[in-house]
Amino acid sequence: MLKNLRNKFLSLCHVTRRLHIETKFGKNSFQIISKISKTSHKYPYLWLRDNCKCSKCYNYVADEIDIDLSKISDNIRPSKIESIDQKTFSVLWNDGHESQYDLEILYNFSLKSLHQLKNSKKLWNKDIIGKLGVPKFNYIDYLSNDLTLRSSLESIKIYGAVIIEGVNANSNEISNLCKRIGPIQNSHFGADCIVTNSLSFKDRAYTNLSLKAHTDTVYLKNSAGIEIFHVLKPAESGGESLLVDGFYCAQQLKENHPNDFEILRKLDVEFNFLKEGVYDLRHHGPVIELDKLGNFVQIRFNPYHKVNLDHLPFNDICDYYKAMRNFSKIIQNESNENWISLRQDQVLLFDNFRILHGRAAFTGHRTLITVYISRDDYLSKANVLGI
Questions:
Q1: Angstrom distance (rounded) from CA 180 to CA 146
Q2: 358 and 303 in contact (C-beta within 8 Å)?
Q3: 231 in Cβ contact with 357 (< 8 Å)
Q4: Could you tell me if 370 and 228 are in contact, meaning their C-beta atoms sit under 8 angstroms apart?
Q5: Is 287 in contact with 301 (CB distance < 8 Å)?
Q6: pTM (2 decimals)?
Q7: Which of 185, 266, 176 has the alpha carbon at shortest distance from 221?
Q8: Is 364 left (phi over 0), alpha (psi -120 to 50) or beta?
Q9: How many Å is the maximal CA-CA distance in the chain?
Q10: Calpha distance 240→234 (Å, rounded)
Q11: Number of H helices, E strands in the chain
Q12: pLDDT tens digit string along 150-175?
């Protein structure tokens, strides 16, 4: 009976015009196939039943799931499948429950998320980004136009950084810019951090010294996601900003020193931020983090903060130093460094999980305001905008 129903369903509801989705019903599973992204995924029928959005299974007032899985059998199966139109079908389950499904919604729950896990980033060195330039967007358009916001966040996803131009040189504008993405992520530096060379905070950033390429807050479990720079008062000379694509450098390490890459991917080290009597922040993790598909997730690299290796065996400690030496050489290679001079009307946004930043030494007084946006808030906004 199910076979006949399956063939009838496919002949009536084979593909949606916009998404080109094919559905297949087997004895124990349901399959969604996207002909555009050339991806497919098979699910048990319990998954399909769990995604029922009828008023008994979903609370539309609270916008929350209202299904008790303890009352649904592992042997749940369709008794009847009917096509409603090109993108909608209904299922009568063998426990008597009736469900109706929209293929586009099922796609968003399944194949779309799988497709988004695929690597869509463009890795770069100085020559590549020099030809392309860091993507730039107008501030008024960014504030008022969701398409501009979407393009800017998509550019961060692809290149790791964008510049917003036409911003007034006052400390309030950065807050307006953040609100388009999400709330400011608070930290031990404060919500919005004004960085000057006044040593108001015991940190190298609060001097006029140069800063090597690094990522911030590697010692926090929830490291800063997006970092935002606005130079309110430029230095008399120097103070240029340095950007390095950490994913590109990690790829170079993988290709030229594969054993070192594996060491930095596998070893779990402790990153510390220690200020005696004030802060003792610690987080364990690898220097190079990958997702389950092997795509880069995060680079934790900061030569100014202690990395604790005391818990590692002797050979692992030796291997770590060798690997970090080679990784550092790649990061500090001039061919991978992109230097930019930020104007007062420009705000730089970059992915702190990917982009290492630094600064040239400078003379005179320089004022920069910097804030963080959490990774979760950035990804949430990107998902809402369909990126």
A1: 9
A2: no
A3: no
A4: yes
A5: yes
A6: 0.84
A7: 185
A8: left
A9: 82
A10: 9
A11: 12, 25
A12: 999 999 999 999 999 999 988 889 99
